[in-house]
Every structure is written in structure tokens, then in C-alpha cells.
Amino acid sequence: MFAYMKTMSDQNSILLQINRVADDLRRGWPAAVQSGDTHLVFMPLEFAARDMLAQFDAFGETSRAAPFIIVTGRRAETLKVAHKGWSVVRLRREGWMRAVDFEALADPTRDLATPLKGPYSRIDHEESPVDQAAVKLVKIARLLPAVLAFETDTVPDGMLSVSATDVLGFDEIQAQSLRQVASAKVPLAGAENTRLVSFRPLTGGIEHMAIVIGDPPRHEPVLVRLHSECFTGDLLGSLKCDCGEQLRGAIKAIDENGGGVVLYLAQEGRGIGLTSKLKAYALQDEGFDTVDANTRLGFEVDERDFGPAAEMLKALGIEQVKLMTNNPNKVEGLKARGINVVERVKHAFPTNPHNIGYLQTKKDKTGHLL
């Protein structure tokens, strides 16, 4: 795999540069990505306010051709643009588009306030590594996956640039670089004999947490739950999902079983981030289910990568698990990374009037075994 061909120094340098680019993008600043002789300068479409557009257009005065828009194939479907099965699609920057139109194109929660004009014209340009990497970078920055871009022979002075190959291998590199950075006993309600172990990439970035309950035996399968963080459900007690019940229920069940591990993964909203999840909630208020809301935003149904979970388990000395989950993708995700899942343990809770549709969608559209 890609990451194994990189030295530790190479990995650290790649992660550092990608995180710096993501930081710039979160501020609305443009960045560049390159593959071979192709350099793509781009900015997040949701930050295309008038002053930022003027600055971006000034950068593009020496570009090879007119600026264009890149959206995901998922978002293209919503915009009624045929995408030929491509993961990313180039659209023409139409003359009628103003700053507010760019922002609305990226953010479907603004459809009612700013009705989309269109029709939008696809540029017949097959998906390329630079286009895919630009969209991947705004996802890493926890922004909506749509950008304004242009191709150029040289990157403007002072602008950060990164290799498309490195960006597309980011998930693998980040998982491989996770290291234990802290460990402490933290008695929990329902499991007093508990230790929290924090994992972080060597260059910083998102931290994941292992909740080690009791003293799980390493010579036999360990009861494990992979739990993606859910600020609204875990902390606030939201009734729109069952996440809080699943987290607390897993801790209690593992303790009663004699020990095990809950991996608390920094993958809010199935990997799209908290702000984008709230946008998905807003679309659900308009009548879309949880799957359609994600895809209207331009994301895949599930953006999570289970590489970090597998690497954390290996670091804890665990290679055989009984996995508490209703999601077959978690089982396959761990198996693909060398973890032996010997049993799937059902982990479901009663519905309430607010999450019954959410759970039914999981069963009908994402294959959850409920």
C-alpha cells in the first residue's frame, strides 16, 4: 500500500504539509495541488465571498484557461448534471454566477433562500488526480466538497502546494502514524476500572481515544466497540440518533462481560465533521433522510476510514475481536486491516419518535442489521 513505501520522515513531512494546507483552506485561502506538470490552484467554494473572489481571480490572470468549479459526483446528481460515474466533475463558471450563487451551489441548505439557477454545464474532463485531491483537501479541512479552481504552469508565490498522490494517500499515512501519547485511569459510571489511552499522529492533528475497560485478555478475542464521536448524541443527549445510548450501553456491557475496549474515533457525522452534520440535519428538517442529506451535500453516504481503529487495536496488542456493531462495513473494514473479527455482537436499542426514521434508513439504505 502507498503508506508503506514512505519512510517515517516522509510521512511526517507529508502530513505536516497537508495539515497546513487544510488550515489555510479553513480560513478561505486558496492553495495548490500538483500532479506531474499539472498545477491546480483552488479555493473552497463556500468561501467565495466577493473579496475572496477578487483575490482568486487576480491569481488566475496567468492561468491556462478560465476558472471552473469542481463538485463531487454526488453533488452533481443533485444539480442534475450527468457525471459519467466520475467521483468529481468539472462545471463551467457561468457568467451569471455571483458570490452568493457560488456559496449556494456548494451549500444545499441555502437552496430555499437562494433558489439554484442553472442549468449547469459539465466540462467534459475525465476525473483527474488533481481534481480528486482538491476535493479531498477540503474534506480534510471539514468543509463542503466543492471548489473554484484553475490550472496554471506555476504556483503563485507564497501559496502552499502539495502533491496529489500524497493527498490521496492521506488516510493511510495518517492511520500509520498514530502513536499513543497519554494514558490515565478514569473511573466511569458503569465501568469504574477504566483507562483512557489517547492516540495522535506524530505531526499533530485529530486525536482518537481508546476506552480500555478492565484488563481484557490479549490471548483470546476481546469485546470491542468502534464508536464514532457524536457531540449531539454523546454529550447533549440528542434524540435524533441512538449514539449516546450506544456509547453508554457499550461501556456497561463490556464491563459486565469482564473487560474490553471502546474505540472513540474522531469521525463526527460518519466522517463529515460536526458543522456539515448540522447542515445535514437542516436538510433532514426539509424532509430528506440521513443518506440523501449527506449526498446532497456532496459527501459519500459514509466517509469514514477504519484504518485508525485497526492501528489502535494493534498498538494495544489486540488482533482478535468480538465486534459490537450493527454495521457490516465495520466488520469488513477491520478485517481488511488485519484484525480478525471472530464474532459480530448485536448492539441495538429501542427507538424513540425522533430517531425511528433515522434507524429505518440505516436498515433500508446502509445495510445495518437492525
UniProtKB/TrEMBL annotation:
Protein name: GTP cyclohydrolase-2
Entry similarity comment: In the N-terminal section; belongs to the DHBP synthase family. Belongs to the GTP cyclohydrolase II family.
Lineage: Bacteria, Pseudomonadati, Pseudomonadota, Alphaproteobacteria, Kordiimonadales
Entry's Gene Ontology cellular component terms: cytosol
PANTHER family: 3,4-DIHYDROXY-2-BUTANONE 4-PHOSPHATE SYNTHASE, GTP CYCLOHYDROLASE II-RELATED
Biological function: Catalyzes the conversion of GTP to 2,5-diamino-6-ribosylamino-4(3H)-pyrimidinone 5'-phosphate (DARP), formate and pyrophosphate.
Binding site for GTP: 225-229, 246, 268-270, 290, 325, 330
Pfam families assigned: GTP_cyclohydro2
Catalytic activity, as annotated: GTP + 4 H2O = 2,5-diamino-6-hydroxy-4-(5-phosphoribosylamino)-pyrimidine + formate + 2 phosphate + 3 H(+)
Gene3D superfamilies: GTP cyclohydrolase II
Root EC class: hydrolase
Keywords: GTP-binding, Hydrolase, Metal-binding, Nucleotide-binding, Riboflavin biosynthesis, Zinc
Binding site for Zn(2+): 230, 241, 243
Listed EC numbers: 3.5.4.25
Cofactor(s) essential for the protein: Zn(2+)
GO molecular function, one term: GTP cyclohydrolase II activity
